């Protein structure tokens, strides 16, 4: 954020162009001498001297944003792949298959592993080298519009070879960015990007200023101003710039975008540098012909590149549970191999003379060493049963998640915000299914629940409230209490524009001049104190009317104390304000409408067009000299400006949070303080954002003394920020309270309905905000987070007992006392909560706690008590909390309660909270893009959480669960048929299937259908998912991936494998082919493998809730692929030569293909029927209720970001392109309506299905016709 422009001189050295406003004062330069660097980690840069910088070996300016390059792609990519246990396992199997003990050809293990690794590496390369960049949300500083998909590698090449003017031999020479070096002097032209971090030396604008846009850094499009040091303004031309030989001593490269510590040593003088003289890479130059700067940080050491951190690596809970399933499969594999090994050791015997087990036999078959036989058989069987671990599981899941993210989430029109042209953005595909299991949401308030569109609404000046409007929250509170609020009519003087929604005839259109002398100021002593403090000013101040004095101070504070930049024509109707925050813009807009029009800014002056009371209605342009700006930050919570009036008056204006302003007020005036505090509480209860305004007159001697310390603090290379804060404390005291402002930030559209839906889904929402308790509570009421039926536990530090202790000033005693009070409150609330929970019809509970109490509640001794109380509450509101506390609360629930958490916010202060949660969601709002860049998913509005969680999250969870359990089922089924065969081969390790059958089973014959299920399976439509949010609770309870579900699938595998093996082998024992020969091993195994492929593919259709043409194509294609393969393979391979042709010449083949799958699937068919009839899942009940309604294809609306179509046209086109559902509810045993619904349908009456109706079915020839509902 652009701060003000602090003076390097003790007093003014330059005057404004209009000398009629003030007279120039003599200048005085503060010389500090050559300051040696105080920090050991500083860097010294010699400007315009490459040879002097050469020994340091600064990094070059070439950048690379790819994870890999041509040299590191293969080694790093393989390292990433073999970090997975499963891939290491298959590598071990491939190595074992190359040994003599392996019963399979090594190629059949190496090829599938290679295919899986190849697909994974291709995906890595695609994700790394291809990046979809939306406009300027990235950190790559593109010198062109990049709203399309481009290759990162090519993007890097374009950026590195972009030309920039560099000073060489007293002229500007165009060189590529990558050839820039630290210390070079360069020229950047208008609308160009800065190629590195620069020290701003000179500009074509007056007073050495330039305007920059920082959208690539933080997403903020408002222009910011930067000002060069006055000593370097003249170094603009090549000949003058060649003479510049300065030495920069500054901090080492870091990722702090808004701070900079350094000094410029120039002409034996040390000049302090601040962020106002730094131009960061990625920003662009605006409204300035060109600037000249010195390079200080290059390439990957620039601040923007050091901020381009990867999103913290997060693994979903389901993926971690998958690891446990893999370990269970390892254990199963070991048990199977151990059984085979022991059996081999027992079975081997020379009595089987036909096996030729003489003394010369190999070790693995030598009966004399049974232990060696068992040990070698163990390794043989490990290679033989290796298919029990699905080799393609991880790559299939990655492909599914990637497509879900890029094609479904990113292109969902239901999460597209047309006003800002912002679609949803999945920044990672690792957490899709985690979205379906969220139990706790931690939300920021401003900009997340609210619009962050601030409007000046009310104010309090000198103890009098102005403004007659009624806020949304006041209306909501009145409705809850059954009070009818009459609509407030706007007066003829009311003005409503962006940032200003104020109505009060006493202040508008200059009416404030007519306020009674002392009616405005309730405390006469206060007015008198103002005159006493201003006794030195023997100018026009003494002729001001006393009643309007404080009002004018209020308006001047609004017009002067800010960092806003005006743009456009200097007229109230056409001017626009570029502000770092919407609050600041609203306050300056308010000053304009009250008659104090801020219209021009230079680095040292602010120009205000004022309506003066002494001029009685006339306007006058007044220039105020800005001497110092003490910037706002989250620690100070205030901003101050030291300015000089044209008549020489020195004033410090200060605005900030009420807590910090009240601490710094002068003594006395207690009545005014009390009245203003009451007004602040009143504003907070109405949900308004408040600031206190105060000022202090400074004598010249006081200011000069303080400014010396201020400049010294600015020159410090160590702890500069801390020292500046300490110096600010010296002047920000003995303030006189002017009044307070109240700004309305309205709720976003759909927030109350969204939160209510999330509650019904079993999700608990916590609000973590920095606002006052009254504001937070009222916002909570307005968005349905808290209601009057709830029992509220309020733990606040604003109690009489705590205030009394704080007034004594003993910090140790204060800490001890507050901790004891918090402990008592927590214990009391917890006992009361447990009492309510034991009652049958107890109320829902809500907890409200402020930041000071939370600080002590998070102490390790009280943390468990806080957690237990919070988990028992339906809603939690934490107010006055810091960014660190937000992250601590999130971690408390994440680690302490082991619940799935989601954090959502829109500002930089939410980044730590977003990264602490399982899932981080960033709102791409008005506070920049820091939250989005740190998040896992980005949306434009809070209400889109409904679609993100209840639709995409729930579907992803259901689909991934099905994919994992199906992989487990099909691989276990296939491996068990081999296991049963082992018992008939003397545990010798003889393979049942051909090598290539075994290798291609996962890769080709069963691979595609499961991916289709992972992409398109849908139990209920999107609209029903939101209509019945209770369905989401199945994901919270992890219903579909419990060990009970896994065991059910395991029993199915055991049953089907027994059917495959014994039915085929038994029925073929006496079977003969057309030539009269009995079937051999390869005939039987080919027949069994055919039945396995057909059955597991048909079983997949049974588990689907919705079937599209892609299901039929994938299942039919997989079965057809098997037959095509065996037709070709049986001609080429000797052991299975013409096997399929021999089998297909017999009736036995066709009977087996028909009957074996039916018998194998019969158990699943019966189980699913019983389960659906008597133990239905929630979604199955909803299916029955809405089984006769037409399919809902609204979810089909996909957004093509690069399309020129309107959203409606895009929706229609996308719907036409999607596969049509042929059946909505398949995969269960019975499909006919219950008796009640049947007879109702016959009469033409719509009657929803009930769960118990399913058990009492009546057959029908055709589906009943139900009337269309509008």
From TrEMBL:
Residues covered by the P-type ATPase C-terminal domain: 932-1176
Residues that bind Mg(2+): 444, 446, 906, 910
First-listed, main subcellular location of the protein, grouped into a coarse class: membrane
Assigned keywords, A-Z: ATP-binding, Magnesium, Membrane, Metal-binding, Nucleotide-binding, Translocase, Transmembrane, Transmembrane helix, Transport
GO cellular component: a single term: trans-Golgi network
Single GO BP term: Golgi vesicle budding
GO terms assigned for molecular function: ATP binding; ATP hydrolysis activity; flippase activity; magnesium ion binding
Disordered: annotated segments: 1-34
Chain ranges of the P-type ATPase N-terminal domain: 45-109
Entry membrane topology: Multi-pass membrane protein
Keyword presence, Membrane: yes
Stored SUPFAM superfamilies: Calcium ATPase, transduction domain A, Calcium ATPase, transmembrane domain M, HAD-like, Metal cation-transporting ATPase, ATP-binding domain N
EC number(s) recorded for this UniProt protein: 7.6.2.1
Localization of this protein: Endomembrane system; Membrane
Annotated catalysed reactions: ATP + H2O + phospholipidSide 1 = ADP + phosphate + phospholipidSide 2
Family: Belongs to the cation transport ATPase (P-type) (TC 3.A.3) family. Type IV subfamily.
Protein name: Phospholipid-transporting ATPase
Native species: Salix dunnii
Organism phylogeny: Eukaryota, Viridiplantae, Streptophyta, Embryophyta, Tracheophyta
């Amino acid at each position: 954020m652009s701060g003000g422009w602090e003076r390097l001189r003790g007093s003014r050295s330059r005057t404004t162009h209009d000398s009629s406003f003030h007279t120039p004062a003599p200048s005085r330069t503060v010389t500090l001498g050559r300051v040696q660097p105080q920090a050991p980690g500083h860097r010294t840069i010699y400007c315009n001297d490459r040879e002097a910088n050469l020994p340091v070996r600064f990094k070059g300016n070439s950048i690379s944003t790819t994870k890999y390059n041509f040299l590191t792609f293969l080694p790093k990519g393989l390292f990433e792949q073999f970090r997975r246990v499963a891939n290491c396992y298959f590598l071990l199997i491939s190595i074992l298959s190359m040994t003599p003990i392996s019963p399979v050809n090594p190629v059949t293990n190496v090829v599938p592993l290679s295919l899986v690794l190849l697909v994974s590496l291709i995906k890595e390369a695609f994700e790394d080298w291809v990046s979809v960049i939306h406009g300027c949300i990235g950190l790559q500083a593109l010198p062109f519009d990049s709203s399309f998909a481009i290759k990162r590698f090519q993007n890097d090449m374009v950026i590195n070879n972009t030309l920039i003017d560099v000073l060489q031999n007293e002229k500007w020479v165009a060189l590529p960015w990558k050839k820039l070096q630290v210390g070079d002097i360069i020229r950047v032209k208008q609308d160009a990007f800065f190629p590195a971090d620069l020290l701003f030396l000179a500009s074509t604008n007056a007073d050495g200023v330039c305007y920059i846009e920082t959208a690539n850094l933080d997403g903020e499009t408002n222009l910011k101003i930067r000002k060069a040091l006055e000593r370097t303004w003249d170094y603009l031309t090549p000949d003058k710039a060649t003479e510049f030989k300065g030495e920069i001593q500054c901090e080492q490269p870091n990722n702090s975008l808004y701070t900079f510590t350094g000094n410029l040593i120039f002409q034996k003088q040390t000049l302090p540098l601040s962020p106002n003289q730094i131009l960061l890479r990625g920003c662009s130059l605006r409204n300035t012909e060109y600037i000249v700067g010195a390079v200080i940080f290059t390439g990957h050491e620039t601040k923007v590149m050091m901020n381009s951190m990867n999103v913290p690596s997060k693994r979903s809970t389901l993926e971690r549970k998958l690891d446990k399933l893999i370990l269970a499969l390892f254990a199963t594999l070991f048990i199977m191999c151990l059984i085979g090994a022991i059996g081999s050791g027992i079975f081997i015997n020379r009595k089987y003379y036909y096996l030729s087990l003489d003394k010369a036999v190999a070790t693995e078959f030598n009966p004399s060493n049974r232990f060696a036989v068992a040990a070698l058989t163990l390794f043989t069987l490990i290679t033989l049963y290796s298919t029990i671990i699905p080799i393609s599981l991880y790559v299939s899941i990655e492909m599914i998640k990637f497509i879900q993210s890029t094609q479904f989430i990113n292109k969902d029109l239901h999460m597209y915000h047309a006003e800002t042209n912002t679609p949803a953005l999945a920044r990672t595909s690792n957490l899709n299914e985690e979205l379906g299991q969220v139990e706790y949401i931690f939300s920021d308030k401003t900009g997340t629940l609210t619009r962050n569109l601030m409007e000046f609404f009310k104010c309090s000046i000198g103890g009098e409230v102005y403004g007659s409007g009624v806020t949304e929250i006041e209306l909501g509170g009145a409705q809850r209490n059954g009070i009818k609020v009459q609509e407030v009519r706007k007066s003829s003087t009311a003005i409503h524009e962006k940032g200003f929604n104020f109505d009060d005839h006493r202040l508008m259109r200059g009416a404030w001049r007519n306020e009674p002398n002392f009616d405005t100021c309730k405390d006469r002593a206060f007015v008198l104190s103002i005159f006493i403090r201003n006794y030195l000013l023997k100018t026009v101040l003494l002729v001001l009317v006393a009643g309007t004095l404080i009002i004018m101070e209020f308006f001047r504070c609004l017009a002067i104390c800010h960092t806003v930049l005006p743009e456009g024509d200097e007229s109230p109707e056409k001017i626009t304000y570029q502000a770092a925050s919407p609050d600041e813009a609203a306050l300056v807009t308010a000053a304009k409408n009250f008659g104090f029009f801020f219209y021009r800014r230079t680095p040292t002056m602010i120009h205000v067009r004022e309506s003066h009371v002494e001029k009685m209605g006339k306007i006058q342009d007044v220039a105020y000299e800005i001497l110092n700006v003490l910037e706002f930050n989250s620690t100070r919570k205030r901003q101050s400006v030291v300015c000089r009036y044209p008549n020489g008056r020195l004033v410090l204006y200060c605005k900030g949070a009420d807590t910090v302003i009240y601490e710094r007020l002068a003594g006395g005036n207690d009545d005014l303080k009390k009245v203003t505090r009451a007004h602040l509480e009143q504003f907070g209860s109405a949900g308004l954002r408040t600031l206190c305004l105060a000022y202090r007159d400074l004598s010249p001697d006081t200011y000069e003394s303080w400014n010396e310390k201020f400049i010294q603090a600015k020159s410090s290379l160590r702890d500069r920020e801390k020292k500046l804060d300490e110096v600010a404390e010296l002047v920000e005291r003995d303030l006189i309270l002017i009044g307070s402002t109240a700004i309305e930030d309205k709720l976003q559209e759909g927030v109350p309905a969204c939160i209510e839906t999330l509650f019904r889904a079993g999700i608990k929402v916590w609000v973590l905000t920095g606002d006052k308790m009254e504001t937070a509570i009222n916002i909570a009421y307005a968005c349905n987070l808290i209601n009057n039926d709830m029992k509220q536990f309020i733990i606040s530090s604003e109690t009489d007992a705590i205030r009394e202790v704080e007034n004594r000033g003993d910090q140790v005693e204060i800490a001890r006392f507050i901790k004891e009070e918090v402990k008592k409150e927590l214990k009391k609330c917890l006992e009361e909560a447990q009492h309510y929970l034991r009652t049958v019809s107890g109320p829902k509970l809500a907890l409200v706690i402020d930041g000071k109490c939370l600080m002590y509640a998070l102490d390790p001794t009280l943390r468990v008590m806080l957690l237990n109380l919070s988990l028992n509450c339906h809603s939690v509101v934490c107010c006055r909390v810091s960014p660190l506390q937000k992250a601590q609360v999130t971690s408390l629930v994440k680690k302490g309660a082991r619940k799935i958490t989601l954090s959502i916010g829109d500002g930089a202060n939410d980044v730590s909270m977003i990264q602490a949660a399982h899932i981080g969601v960033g709102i791409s709002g008005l506070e920049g893009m820091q939250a989005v860049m740190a998040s896992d998913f980005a949306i434009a509005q809070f209400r889109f959480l409904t679609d993100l969680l209840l639709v995409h999250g729930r579907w992803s969870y259901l689909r991934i669960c099905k994919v994992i359990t199906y992989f487990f089922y099909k691989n276990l089924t296939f491996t068990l048929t081999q296991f049963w065969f082992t018992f008939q081969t003397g545990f010798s390790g003889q393979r049942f299937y051909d090598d290539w059958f075994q290798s291609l089973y996962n890769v080709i014959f069963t691979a595609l259908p499961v991916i289709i299920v992972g992409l398109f399976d849908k139990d209920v439509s999107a609209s029903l998912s939101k209509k019945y949010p209770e369905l989401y609770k199945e994901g919270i309870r992890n219903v579909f991936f419990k060990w009970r579900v896994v065991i059910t699938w395991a029993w199915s595998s055991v049953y089907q494998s027994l059917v495959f093996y014994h039915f085929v082998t038994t029925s073929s024992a006496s079977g003969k082919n057309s030539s009269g020969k009995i079937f051999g091993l390869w005939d039987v195994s080919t027949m069994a493998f055919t039945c396995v492929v057909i059955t597991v593919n048909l079983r997949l259709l049974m588990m689907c809730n919705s079937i599209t043409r892609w299901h039929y194509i994938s299942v039919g294609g997989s079965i057809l692929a098997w037959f095509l393969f065996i037709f070709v393979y049986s001609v080429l391979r000797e052991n299975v030569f013409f096997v399929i042709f021999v089998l297909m010449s017999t009736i036995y083949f066709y009977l087996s293909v028909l009957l074996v799958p039916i018998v194998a699937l019969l158990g699943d068919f019966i189980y699913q029927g019983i389960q659906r009839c008597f133990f239905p899942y929630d979604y199955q009940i909803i299916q029955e209720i809405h089984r006769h309604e037409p399919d809902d294809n609204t979810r089909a609306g996909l957004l093509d970001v690069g399309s020129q179509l309107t959203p409606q046209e895009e929706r229609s086109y996308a719907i036409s392109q999607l596969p049509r559902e042929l059946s909505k509810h398949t995969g269960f045993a019975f499909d006919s309506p219950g008796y009640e619904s049947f007879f109702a349908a016959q009469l033409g009456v719509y009657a929803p299905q009930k769960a118990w109706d399913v058990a009492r079915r009546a057959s029908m020839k055709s589906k009943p016709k139900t009337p269309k509902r509008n």
